Amino acid sequence: MTSTPSAAREIPLRNGNGNGSTNPGEDLTRTVSSSFGTLDNLSKSPTATFHSTPSSYGGHQKPSTKQLKPFHTEDIKILLLENVNKTGQEILRKQGYQVEALKSSLPEDQLIEKIRDVHVIGIRSKTQLTASVLKHAKNLIVIGCFCIGTNQVDLKYAAENGICVFNSPFSNSRSVAEQMIGTIIMLARQIGDRSNELHQGIWNKVSAGCWEVRGKTLGIVGYGHVGSQLSVLAESMGMKVIYFDVVNLMSMGTSSQVHSLDELLKQADFVTLHVPEIPETRNMISTHQLEQMKQGSYLLNASRGSVVDIPALIKAMQAGKLGGAALDVYPNEPAGNGPHFNNDLNDFTEDLRKLKNVILTPHIGGSTEEAQSAIGVEVAESLLNYVNLGTTSGAVNMPEVSLRSLTLDEPNHLRVVYIHKNVPGVLRRVNEILGDHNVDKQMTDSRGDVAYLMADISNVNISEIKALYQSLEDLGSRIRTRVLY
Ligand SMILES: NC(=O)c1ccc[n+]([C@@H]2O[C@H](COP(=O)([O-])OP(=O)(O)OC[C@H]3O[C@@H](n4cnc5c(N)ncnc54)[C@H](O)[C@@H]3O)[C@@H](O)[C@H]2O)c1
Prior knowledge:
Pfam families: 2-Hacid_dh (PF00389), 2-Hacid_dh_C (PF02826). The protein is of the alpha/beta class. Helix content is 28%, strand content 18%. It folds into two domains: 8-170 and 371-402, NAD(P)-binding Rossmann-like Domain (Rossmann fold); 173-360, NAD(P)-binding Rossmann-like Domain (Rossmann fold). The chain has 14 helices and 18 strands. Helix 5 (173-188) crosses helix 7.
């Protein structure tokens, strides 16, 4: 879960310079820094205060939590492109990392030059991190996509080279839900048409076909992050809420789950779609489903453009079946702003534009300042958790692995992260190496060809760390070894 900026705390570091305590583990001084693949790059304890990160279990770390660090914070180079939100930049700067933030993306040759050096890169949707770019990124351990989509990154290549990728899929859920509330009222009152008419100088004061939303039934298809937020908002305006989801889900407020899409379509005055884009949801609202809807009802789609059969919707509108519709997403969407919304984009566009009481918006459901800021926090914290703790919760190309945090009374413990090829026999070899030590806890998971192992080991001295690291590095299955302590 994303933690809000206001929830941030400053936690004294384990060296005791903040709270007067001494570190009983001074014998394990930070003279080994092997996380990024070299034992020559030695480091000391970071001296900056620490922006709190969630514990390995997702909540905030308790003050007694031991802060793991891979090596001297100043060694870590972070490149942020495309004007990543300031909230995210600040979180990373507070760590003492070297952060370079640029306002735009970079042409490929300049990107390759820059990426050679950095351990972390943050991008938005324009920067293409293809295999041919990533092959130059010898130090890179993690990519943060400060946006929803991750198509711009070669996820498979990244995983196979031990580079974890994070994004922020849910930071804008509230923004979408609020847009839906506004749009429901606009449709019920035909406000889009009245506004267009007045812009053309036409005064058209009508009440026929205009309704309050109080007491009307809202049917939510897909009761996830957006759908459930919308449910709460709609009820507070006096709407009755029903929802359909493939998963049996706890209702918010007094809403209720129905058993089938058809049941929802027959009961709802407003049908709003919040499902993912998957083969099962392709054209899930087409001619048959539109026929099931109540006469004069409304359809809203802010999920993905493939979910509604738009030519079928156009026919239903032309036949007077629906009272209105709102679309925020389309099967094909332009890459940039400009006069692109025409039949070259989707061959039904001109017909769509002619329809009355159809509100068309350019995929802006999640586009708010608040969402951008929340994305900044969420992705920056994922990056910190990965760099400092090795946890992959929320990763899009690696298995999700986390361990409960180490505490201050475990000074001579260290955490081993071993990213490896998912081939038979690896765990036996790894455990032969780790088995010489006391393994406090361990977790491993795989995703496709790549597996991720985390283990916390107690009472380790420096010479053992070096040997242990080298033994793991020498295994043929190794993709990347990191040691955090
Ligand atoms: N317009 C925008 O700017 C914008 C912004 C954010 C998200 N979105 C889109 O909105 C949609 C919902 O996002 P979310 O964050 O709530 O996703 P989510 O994963 O939290 O929720 C989706 C829900 O749909 C359910 N579902 C899956 N298949 C279903 C089916 N066949 N029938 C009924 N329910 C089904 C899932 O069980 C889940 O509860 C996604 O398509 C997302 O890409 C659009």
